[in-house]
Specification:
- By secondary structure, the chain is mainly alpha-helical.
- The chain has one domain: Ferritin (Up-down Bundle), CATH 1.20.1260.
- Helix content is about 80%, strand content about 0%.
């Protein structure tokens, strides 16, 4: 393995560790159960990403399976969200920081995939790009929900209002 790939992997693993720390801290400080649950689930995912990077393999994981697993963990959290207005302002700031982290991760893994010399490493980076894009979309949806809970489902599920 080349020195540049080793350096990239070490940097990426540290980035994921920092992400885990960020999401755990955000979960501890979250004002709503919804944000707390989202941050906690994303922290778990960061640990999985470290495992992928250390083994240079995602095993049987795919972007679809990882995003479905995250959605399954979050479904009960969203169902039980209740009144999320309390504490939403601080949560939104942390969610926006999370979005910035996910954008940086997508850019980093996409660049690594583009520069990859071998198929397996490229495939690993491409799966991570897809997963990180899913994380970003989730965080953006939570921000939208906290900002506009009354209209969120109209937009997200394309509900039709008759009147």
């Amino acid at each position: 393995m080349s020195d540049s790939r080793d350096e990239f992997l070490n940097t990426a693993i540290q980035f994921e560790r920092d992400g885990f720390d960020f999401y755990m801290e955000a979960a501890r400080n979250a004002g709503s159960d919804l944000a707390r649950g989202v941050f906690g689930s994303l922290a778990q995912d960061e640990l999985r990403h470290i495992s992928f990077l250390k083994t240079l393999s995602v095993g049987e994981a795919t972007v679809k399976s990882e995003n479905e697993s995250l959605a399954a963990r979050l479904r009960p959290i969203f169902k039980d969200a209740g009144d999320v207005a309390a504490g939403a302002e601080g949560d939104i700031a942390a969610l926006n920081l999370g979005i910035e982290r996910e954008i940086k991760a997508v850019e980093t893994y996409a660049a690594a995939a583009a520069d990859a010399d071998d198929h397996e490493f490229r495939a690993l980076c491409e799966v991570l790009v897809g997963i990180e894009k899913g994380h970003r979309q989730l965080l953006e949806n939570v921000v939208e929900y906290l900002d506009h809970p009354d209209s969120f489902f109209l937009r997200e599920e394309r509900w039709i209002v008759e009147g």
